[in-house]
Amino acid sequence: MIESEVLVLNAGFVPIRITTVKEAICLLLSDKAVPVVEEDTFIRSPSIAIKVPSVIAILNYHHLPRRKVVFSKLNVIYRDDMQCQYCGKRFQMKHLTVDHVIPRSRWEVVTGKSLKEGFSSWHNLVCACKWCNNQKGNKLMHEIGWSLLREPFEPEYIPYIIVTAEKAKKKGWLPFCGFNVKIVEMIP
Ligand SMILES: [Zn+2]
Questions:
Q1: Are the C-beta atoms of residues 128 and 135 closer than 8 Å to each other?
Q2: Cα–ligand 1 centroid distance for 129 (angstroms)
Q3: Gap from CA of 82 to ligand 1 centroid (Å)
Q4: Contact, 55 vs 7, CB < 8 A?
Q5: I want to staple 19 with a disulfide (CB 3.0 to 4.6 A). Which of 10, 15, 23, 150 is the partner?
Q6: Distance separating alpha carbons of residues 57 and 53, to the nearest angstrom
Q7: How far does residue 134's CA lie from ligand 1's centre (Å)?
Q8: Ligand 1: distance of its center to the CA of 165 in Å?
Q9: What are the backbone dihedrals phi and psi of residue 177, each rounded to the nearest 5 degrees, phi first?
Q10: Average pLDDT of the chain?
Q11: Alpha-carbon dihedral of residues 121, 127, 132, 136, nearest 10 degrees?
C-alpha cells in the first residue's frame, strides 16, 4: 500500500508525475501538498491516521518540469499517436511496430547519405501496424503507391505520464488527465 501510485498535480492541477503513497504522505505532512482525491482506507501510526491519497497537488509549484523528448521506438509510436502512418488505423500496442520509411537497403542510394546520417531518426521512422510493415518490406513509398499520413518530424512534446485506462479509472485520475497524460490500453 505504501508503494501504491499517486498522481501528482502542480498548483494549476496539471499532472506532472507519479509518485508513491509514501512520498505523497511526506509531502502532505510537511504541508507542501494537499490531497485532491483520497481512498477510503487509512494509514495509521500511533499518533495519526491519514487517508490514503490517490491524487495530490503541490502548492506553490506552477511549472512543468522540463524534459527533452528522448528518441526511442516507443516515443515514435507515441508521437504518431499509435496510428499506423501507412493505413491510418489505430491499433493496440501489441500490433504496432516502427518502420523505416526509406529502408536500410535503399537509404544510401536514395539519399546519398550514409546510414549514420539520419537513417534511424525521427525523420525516417514512423509507427506502422505489423501488417503494413510486412507489406512494405524494402520498397519505397512511390513504388507501391502508398503515401504517408503525415511527414515524420521531431516532436517538441510528448506527454510526461503514460497510464492505462484501467488504472486511471480505478484510481480516480481520469478527471485530471486532460493535459500531459496519455491514456493507453496497455503499457508495453
Ligand atoms: Zn497499417
A1: no
A2: 4
A3: 10
A4: yes
A5: 23
A6: 10
A7: 9
A8: 23
A9: -95, 20
A10: 92
A11: -10
Distance between Cα 131 and ligand 1 center (Å): 6
Positions of E strands within 4-135: 5-9, 15-20, 33-44, 49-58, 96-100, 125-129
**Rounded CA separation 121/76 (Å):** 9
Full set of structural domains in the chain with CATH: 5-66+161-184 (no CATH), 73-144 (1.10.30.50)
**If you count them, how many residues does the chain have?**
188
pLDDT in tens, 50-107: 999 999 999 998 888 777 788 999 999 999 989 999 999 999 889 999 999 999 999 9
What does the pLDDT look like over 120-155, one tens digit per residue?
999 999 999 999 999 999 999 999 999 999 999 999
Q: What are 35's strand-pairing partners?
A: 56
- Ligand 1 center from residue 158 Cα (angstroms): 22
